[in-house]
């Protein structure tokens, strides 16, 4: 009876372990894939024997008694062959694997995407709003402020470029403010405009004056993006939404 209770306790622990959301390491990834495959299989179309094999494969932590060494060895060999046949099936398997990859990418992206989101170019009305945007933002958020003035060459094009980049990099806070509204207009004459100030955790990282001189006469968002990336001021681009259709590009 004591041995039976111990085995039941071990089984319960194993079930709790297998019920965790995700595994780490190569064996954990394989186990996650097997479970995903089992969940995505059509229960009516799948033969009972094959479904049972998949169920056993998705629970690799089950143990055998010490006296059943031969059975364990035969089981391992059998599972190895069955696993090969199931994992290396043709188009249906490949489609399932593609779906699994996409789900993993979505899960990873969701875990890595933290902090506030913006997605637009914010207009600051005065110096107080400027200070709040810089000093009261999340410490991991990059704040890029464009100081401009109407009629100054390059300012309109830079505002258009930053509007595009704000949508591409929603974790970056893009702002614009007129030099005359900062309360320090004498420091931002038309000769130094357009200017870009980049902050993080309230600290000034970079200060670019007359930044349009870094570009051609006509410039676009891609040019500003390349310039900011050159100084390491932009994060990795946001991943596009991953659909469930088979016509989506494969994710390696």
From TrEMBL:
Keywords: Cell projection, Cilium, Cytoplasm, Nucleus, Phosphoprotein, Sensory transduction, Vision. The keyword Hydrolase does not apply. GO terms for cellular component: cytosol; nucleus; photoreceptor inner segment; photoreceptor outer segment. Residues 1-18 have a biased composition (Acidic residues). It comes from the Eukaryota. It is found in: Cell projection, Cilium, Photoreceptor outer segment; Cytoplasm, Cytosol; Nucleus; Photoreceptor inner segment. Residues 1-70 are annotated as: Disordered. One of its GO terms (biological process) is visual perception. It holds the Pfam family Phosducin. Its main location: other. Residues 9-242 form the Phosducin domain. Belongs to the phosducin family. PANTHER family: PHOSDUCIN, PHOSDUCIN-LIKE PROTEIN. This is Phosducin. The lineage of its organism: Eukaryota, Metazoa, Chordata, Craniata, Vertebrata. The gene is PDC.
